[in-house]
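Journal club prep — side note

Before the paper discussion, L.F. wants everyone to see what a predicted structure for a comparable chain looks like in token form. Sequence:
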Amino acid sequence: MNDLCVDIGYKSINHHGEQLCGDHVEIVEQNENSTVIVLADGLGSGVKASILSTLTSKIISTMMAAGLPIDECVSTIAATLPVCSVRGVAYSTFTIMHLINNETIEIIQYDNPHVIMLRDCVNYDYPKTEISIDGKKIYKSTIHFQENDIFVAMSDGCPHAGIGLSYNFGWKREDIIAFMEVMAMNGLTAKNLATLLVDECNTLYANKPGDDATACIVKIRKREPVNLLFGPPSNPDDVNRMMALFFSKEGKHIICGGTTSSIAAKYLGKPLQATLNFEKSEIPPIAKIEGVDLVTEGVITVNKVVEYAKDYLVNNELYEQWYFKKDGASLICQLLIEEATDINFYVGRAINPAHQNPDLPINFNIKMNLVEELSKCLKEMGKRIKVSYF
């Protein structure tokens, strides 16, 4: 097995004036190394479109993950979808991206804009085979992928962006490709790439989208482990064991907390150097220890990281607040969200006497809850998480 993994991210905007999105993305893990992703676009917009796309994506992804052939999936969709009383058709377009054993991707496309593939940040014209299932013209491709390949699936709200406003005939495919080629050079995550693409569509629509627009991006990357140490162990006799386990792990190392960083510095026999760089007034400054990638304050900083992580999973509106910044919370986000694929938490259960002041809104339970919330968010991002308590 290779050391590749997939980074999946998507974002949608609703048709102006609609509460529900007519597009839907469904992701189903077959096993640790195989995943089925379906982007469905329901006919029209609003409630009906939302129902059509949700049903389509859920049925197809479930059947594909169970190993059923595509023609059976399409036949089931045709028989299952409710018929629109106005137009007299049951209609939802779809794009399927089936990632198999971290080696190949099978792309099946029906009436959505064709998936854009970037290899080495340049458009790659992959082969497509046309097949007919129940009278529907479907395109099928199988690609052996490699590191840094990017696959961009879209609903037709993306190429329709700007019709009659910025452009006469919408945002052409070649213009979207050119936009994504530039964005791909920045090493962004799949979620941030999808966010930038959909935000640009929204701008072209003058913030009043004339259609639901969704981008779902798959980025192929190598596994990158990151280790985070948060708090000293409840038993002081476990300090050396905890430190030995933490520093023996492959990958980058983050230490959160003043007491924890002092213990780590003593273990390494290196000085703990404070800095006074208050880039954000509400985030305490970072420190430095030779041999450690990042040293930050504890609860206040990690609480901000959790806030950013929760936003990243929903609308991703705050990414500009941390992506380019150098405060402790932003640097942790850059390592955990942007770089890491496998994250090992080493969490000490010692109760900090400084946190027992009744005037402070910090206690032991808050610290444990932060670890649980952060690890849950990172799991939802598709990262492998392991938490060890001491």
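L.F.'s comment for the group: The domain at 4-222 is CATH 3.60.40.10 (Phosphatase 2c; domain 1). Keep this in mind when we get to the figures.
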